Amino acid sequence: MLHTLTVNTTTRSQLIDITPQVKKIIQAEKISEGCCYLFVPHTTAGITINEHADPSVAQDIINGLERLVPREGSYRHLEGNADAHIKTSLVGSSLFVPIVDGQLVLGTWQGIFFCEFDGPRQRKVLVKLISG
């Protein structure tokens, strides 16, 4: 079954920990072994796994991407959000996370982050659980 998470962002660039929402889907579907596939169907938003124990890491990632790909530049894209497209390409739009004993297999400090680069907006994350 395909699930859709709705993510409401509040700023132009933002990392939002969606791990709790993904865990709820796994619990509701009672998947004990398998894989969780996550896909962001947007060209200016992505998804990544990183540390969620210290919220300053998410801001450091945003700041680092801004230094690498500043909002203002000699871009040809006319909508004014070329940097968001580039950041999304760097971060990526999908993830696979194993599920063992009904739990996401993540490191001690890891969480799943929705990455907004052209907000604020209402976004979607598609979640497909594969049992087995």
From TrEMBL:
It comes from the Bacteria. InterPro entries: UPF0047_YjbQ-like (IPR001602), YjbQ-like_sf (IPR035917). Belongs to the UPF0047 family. This is Secondary thiamine-phosphate synthase enzyme. It comes from Desulfofundulus australicus DSM 11792.
